[in-house]
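Request: Mind sharing a record?
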Amino acid sequence: MSRQPPRPPRAIFRLAAIGLVIAILATAFAYVSGWLDPGWLTPDSLIDTLEADTGIHAGYRRNHAKGICVTGEFESNGQAAALSRASVFDPGRRVPVIGRLAIPGPDPNASDAMPPVRSFALLFRLPDNEQWRTAMNAMPVFSVSTPEAFREQLEASQPDPQTGKPDPDKLAAFFQAHPETKPFLAWAKTARRSSSYANIGYNSLNAFRFIDDDGNTHFVRWGVEPEAPFSPMTEAQKQDPDFLSQELRQRLADGPQRWHLIITVAEPGDPTDDATLAWPAERRRIDAGIVTVDSAQSQVDGPCRDINYDPLILPDGIEGSDDPILSARSAAYSESFNRRTREQAEAPNRHQEPQS
């Protein structure tokens, strides 16, 4: 009689839990602009798959459905002006920002205690009607780097009809076949959930190009780092499904919240097309200025409601890189935007503030 190879049950179930996180996050990053068979994965079929798994929450974003609008400004200190001719980096430049803080997932009534990740999207309103839009996540790397791997990840993460959860054996096989997922897995196993939107950093994950006044290219990644010190989610917060938005409003009642915009500059040989690989810690980091948030509004009728935070809407002086996932995000965000705005127009009174 053949023997089945032993498997560590605890490790496999940890993989199942991580798989749930990946399934939620990955829906926003699928590459759907021609690398995959269009009969298998297009913007329509991607969002259809998500809706089939989770149900349709009409009028809401198909991922990061639960969030809160914020407004404020960015003030440049001029330190990044040598790298990019974008007007946002001019010394002393102050521009308004419209942002959105959120948790991943398609359910607008999800508990804030569930996901380890928070997201921060920003729109910078620049002179001459230019905009810079960025969608950042509170994690250091992404889980996969190629369209093919993403397809396999989706397949491995599909919920089992009997349990409603991913099959741990399929996930284990996927991770074994894709060693590039190791940095993400290492982070996910130890990630601590923050007690606030305002005391955690957010990263672009993808690389971009900065173009200077002479036309030279500098590959960069960016993120925002909070002035507020990190503290983990408390036991009391775990019992409150909406603690993140409530806690943020309480903070803002005491004063604005600030993050430093940090630009990390690549050196030759650093990967610019692979969001699973972090750059070395000793890379040059430039503090480009302060993002200040001074007010919060409901996502139902706040200023962020109708904004598609497409990461490829960029001003002169900033361009996309060779990372294929950037095109994925742009296409998936567009399809989600089209669906939810159509639903809002068809039933404008249906979109209510989520109640948990």
User: Anything to note?
Assistant: The helical segments are 9-26, 43-54, 147-157, 168-177, 182-190, 235-238, 243-254, 325-346. The first strand starts at residue 66 and ends at 76. The chain has eight helices and ten strands. The chain has one domain: 9-346.
